[in-house]
Amino acid sequence: MGRPLGRAVTADPIAEIVAAREEARRRKDPHVDVCFLVTVGTGGRPEARPVSLRDVDADGFGMLINTHSPKWRQIEAGGQCSLTILWSSVERQYRVYGALRPMRAERLRFWWERKVLGSRLLEHYYEVYRPQSEPVASREEFLAGIAELGRRYPDAASVPPPAGLRGVCLWPTEIDVWHGSPADRLHDRRLFTRREDGWTFETLVP
Known about the structure:
Pnp Oxidase, Chain A, 9-stranded antiparallel β-sheet
């Protein structure tokens, strides 16, 4: 019973995650570009929300975050965050812990240029009108602000990156790797820890 042990053994968990993502994309997993960012809010309350997962490479796990958002304020205040990734199509889950580092400028520009017009206008809305997650009188008022920004920036190419946009990478020091075995629930789970000379792992009870 259970998955063959060798399936979870790898010298480099980042390489495994990249390969699993490629397979999940091939299988049209709807969450292939999603991760859950977990921060600590007021009074120690944990807060999790889905965000777009950008690069996964030697620099870490890339995300775009606006400095006017609660998640950015929580990260700055406590310095703590983690990511959870779940790709059900390939029965893989990853919990990632580490430190945030700035994304390389060329990658930030790359991802900005792939945002659609509405997404770019929303980034400016945070700075011109109200920060993310702040109350607004109505959806109509919100859309009116977006429409005004749309008159200022009529197409995506005309919208510059706002001052508050940050590209960050979670550079992992620990990755909890879970390989699902749904038939018998005897999942294969490993905790990878980064050392100076590479990664080590230990098997965890699933």
